[in-house]
């Protein structure tokens, strides 16, 4: 945000900067939903006031999140795809890098060409709160990625990143040692009691149930019957085997609306036996499976990043006649032609 507003980036150029920021954030954290939740409340309103197209701005955040979810060595999909196919993390990331970067370059060109078109409205109060010292927090992302690529365990790599982030934040005066204090006494207000944090319990329970259903499908023999039918009637060449891997992975991710559980479902029972029969490399099988769940899955309307309670779902909410904005409060997340808080006034 500081770079975009101090360099005069507007329209499509700012959308590209948002896309790059989402790529970096997702690459270091390995979470697509976390990227959308962390970046949307800050970059989406700023991009709108800097003349960015609201739809392309939201797509830039989601696309950058998909990039990191596909390539990050600490991503759940990257770990599951490599583990189920018996491939090393280093081999998977190195072979997947050209694929992810090719998609990123094409996406960046599209965002640059069609990301503008809005009216520029620079807010002085936002510009006054910018602080470039936040760039030092990128050191934590570098530490996590490098540690994971050097073969460190996922937990160990994340611990290194957390320690680096805490030290960098204190040194850059972005935080204080108070972050290590115990939570406040019972009854005192705290961030964890907000509706946004409690809404995550549904997602946690949903993920546990998905894993249970996945194990049931494997144990009852359905996956074995599908594999036997495909070997006899559908797959006869290497290319058909690759298309089969992509197809079954996409079909598994659509109904359960979860990419990593979809890989757990088809990876050991369908993808690996079929790929080994046609002598597909382990990294190749992992890449086919992971790229499948990081493309179609992200445009599904029931993807978790678009569900109620997440940042992208509330970026352009519906406005009712009863929601009036007090004149003293500025609009925070406006939409084209409508103010976010008042239904009748034009933005």
Q: Mind explaining what this structure looks like?
A:
The protein has 15 helices and no strands. With 347 residues, the protein is mainly α. α2 crosses α8. Residues 317-347 have low confidence and may be disordered.
How would the global form be characterised? globular
Main sheet properties? none
Q: Return Rg in Å.
A: 22 Å
Structural class: mainly alpha
Distance between the termini: 22 Å
Which percent range describes the beta-strand content? under 5%
> What percent of residues adopt helix (DSSP H or I)?
55-70%
List strands and helices in order, with pairings.
Elements lengths: L1 H5 L5 H18 L2 H18 L4 H18 L4 H10 L3 H26 L9 H5 L9 H12 L4 H18 L23 H4 L1 H20 L2 H13 L3 H19 L2 H19 L4 H12 L54
Key features of this structure:
347 residues; mainly alpha; 63% helix; globular; disordered C terminus
Short description, anyone?
The chain is globular, with a radius of gyration of 22 Å.
